[in-house]
Specification:
One of its GO terms (molecular function) is 3-demethylubiquinol 3-O-methyltransferase activity. The chain has 8 helices and 8 strands, in the order ααβαβαβαβαβααβββ. The protein is an alpha/beta fold. The two termini are 30 Å apart.
Length: 236
């Protein structure tokens, strides 16, 4: 393990404490289950299919996205620093008969040992939970082969994102536990794109995720003011 890990122990503890409920589709992680098909379709489409591709999911948690990519035929690896979520992910993969390699390792250390090894790199809903998100972006770029697809999702640093993701989702609707997000850690798309371009990535597509509280459904949209997805290509 590296001496100075890019990790907030409080963030790890937050997700460790509720790890056993990761696959409860009506529990704290229900929003992740609900948006996963949208995110998976976006990734599969922009990457021009996941079948037989080497994929790594950074900050995989309990493996919701990682496992769904493996089900589409990807050779999937999930990395995270939370042992309990990884245990849950491994157990669930065994239960459903899907092979995924789950590893407890910092993204930077994994990147140093897996330089330009992956066709697709994903890092969703994780950048807002680490002290140095730019370092994670650099690590993701390092893992990607030239021409590979790299995907990030996070929350925009807007008043609307604060009102919807923190006041609405945490305090009013109780969709996620209070304290899940901190507005100071949200990231503007322009900032994320700037970091990615410095790491040799070129932005290719974007999408926002919109929640309709009336019919309780999520949709992909052009509005990136709250939760957004970005697709990058690793330049040669």
């Amino acid at each position: 393990m590296t001496e100075h890990q890019n990790v907030d122990p409080q963030e790890i503890a937050k997700f460790e404490s509720i790890a056993e409920r990761w696959w409860d589709t009506e529990g704290e992680f229900k929003p992740l289950h609900d948006i996963n098909p949208l995110r998976l379709d976006f990734i599969n489409d922009k990457a021009k299919g996941l079948f037989d591709k080497k994929v790594v999911d950074i900050g995989c948690g309990g493996g919701i996205l990682t496992e769904s990519m493996a089900k589409l035929g990807a050779k999937a690896t999930g990395i995270d620093l939370g042992q309990e979520p990884l245990n849950v992910a491994k157990l669930h993969a065994l239960e459903v008969g899907i092979h995924v390699d789950y590893i407890k390792v910092p993204a930077e250390e994994f990147a140093a040992n897996n330089n330009e090894q992956f066709d697709v790199v994903t890092c969703l809903e994780m950048l807002e939970h680490v002290p140095d998100p730019e370092s994670i972006i650099q690590a993701a770029a390092q893992m990607a082969k030239p021409g590979a697809s790299v995907f990030f999702s996070t929350l925009n640093k807007t008043i609307k994102a604060y009102l919807l993701a923190i006041v609405g989702a945490e305090k009013v609707l109780k969709m996620v536990p209070e304290g899940t997000h901190e507005h100071d850690k949200f990231i503007r798309p322009s900032t994320l794109i700037g970091w990615a371009e410095k790491a040799g990535l070129k932005v290719r597509a974007s999408a926002g995720i919109n929640y309709n509280p009336i019919n309780k459904t999520f949709t992909l949209t052009d509005d990136v003011s709250v939760n957004y997805l970005l697709h990058f290509e690793k330049l040669d």
